[in-house]
Amino acid sequence: MAPDPATSAAMFDIKFIRDNPDAFDAGLARRNVGRQARALIAIDAEARKLTESLNALQARRNAASKEIGAAKAKGDDALFNSLRAEVDAIKAQMPAAEAEQKTKLDAIREILSGLPNLPADDIPDGDDEAANVEIRRIGEPRKINSAKEHFDLGEALGQMDFEVAAKMSGSRFVLLKGGLARLERAIANFMLDLHTGEFGYTECQPPLLVRDQALFGTGQLPKFAEDLFPVETNYQARHQELSFRSQQKQELMSLLKAQLESLNDRADRLEEAKRNFDPSVASEQLHAGIDFIGRETNIIDSESRLIKEKYEKCEGEFKAITLEFNSMAEKRQAISYLIPTAEVPLTNIVANLILAGEELPLRYTAWTPCFRSEAGAAGRDTRGMIRLHQFSKVELVSITAPDQADAEHERMTQCAETVLQRLELPYRTMVLSTGDMGFSARKTYDIEVWLPGQGQYREISSCSNCGDFQARRMNTRFRPKSDKQTQFVHTLNGSGLAVGRTLVAVLENYQQADGSIAVPDVLRSYMGGVETIEKVL
Known about the structure:
Elements: H1 5-8, H2 14-19, H3 21-30, H4 37-74, H5 77-113, E1 133-138, H6 150-157, E2 160-161, H7 162-169, E3 175-176, H8 178-197, E4 202-203, E5 209-211, H9 212-218, E6 229-231, H10 235-275, H11 283-331, E7 336-338, H12 343-347, E8 354-356, E9 362-371, E10 390-400, H13 405-423, E11 427-431, E12 443-451, E13 456-465, H14 469-474, E14 477-479, E15 487-488, E16 490-498, H15 499-509, E17 517-518, E18 532-533
Parallel strand pairs: 4-9, 8-14
Antiparallel strand pairs: 1-11, 2-3, 5-7, 6-7, 9-10, 10-16, 11-12, 12-13, 13-16, 14-15, 17-18
């Protein structure tokens, strides 16, 4: 059966768009995106017509194939030839119709893949961060005379080196040494212990390289490719893998073709035997022979249909492999990327799965390096550790049922805030406006920590509820305990926290008059009892 357009382009529910075009466009308008519903509905209508046509052709093809067997058994050559010609004609029509349907579905998919998630009803409208709304402020900023910024403090200690890092890797990298390197590790370990020990997250060590499909699932691709670091070195491995799979498919197609030819030879021999029956033979023997040939012919037809279906499936897979293989050979395109955040591999743990409802919520955490090109950050935060190409972060990811997601969002945000509370760092929590929210989010809380050296609050965590947006892109569902019908899960992610920025906040908030850094109480056990980080003479 041909694929249903309603399920083939899954970034959004196309049925919802058909039934609620104005609501869909209104949601996009809040994200500063123009109307899309009319164009999508028109393409979808064409795709659905093609689906109906293909289904009708397939049904007639199957029926005619059965009738061919019956015609053979009856010895009705005229009907047999007529039906076979009809089947051949249907087979000739189907590739063009399938190609046209694929073109329509690809057009829907291309439009939908570039559209952001629709915003929740309760978030503020606005074009940018100026419209964000503060919902709470915790802690009083310390009074520090002539507060220095973290890079001045770190360089004075001789434990933060941007010049050496730049020699090795270019701008927006840092080399930490000694006490500061240990302090960053201590911060990360404290966060992991808190999230796993008190908040029930499962610690993971995910891959740092992912394929494009994983990034598509969480929403970084295709729209934000320029923010990613592609890894070209994996080209050869993928090229070899595709070459091996292509050879496997070709060998299987050859085997299936040989099996089909063997069955056709058997059918021809049976037909020849039927034509050579001597009419003078006793009628009982004649009928027994004809019945035997009919049964054998039906078996051959059934086996032939199965082999043809396998061959067509294998041929389709071979064409897809060949397309990717040729594309790689032409463009030598990267097929893996360094992760911009552990949100990508943690969320993709459940990609293409149907989960049991009683498993939910699932909670994962990981401490990983993250890699971002910062393509849109030219001229911003050019000094220091606020905006690096490589930085570490403790990520939180939750997979929930729809009715759990809002409460889980509040819980996740509190988990992230607890880190700052234990570190005794002043912060405020903001709900982001529609214009400042990330692509995949329907609602986001930003947690901003106070930096005395800069004299302002800076983002240290974003906690987002993505609804079913990512689940649809990953095709991740769950089956409620009391319901046979599956539903899309909801996904949430947040920083718990950005480790490098937490280090920045500790340096600036715990700086001493002599340039040393007091270690927060909660981190001293992770530092082997060290209470102060001082310049090493």
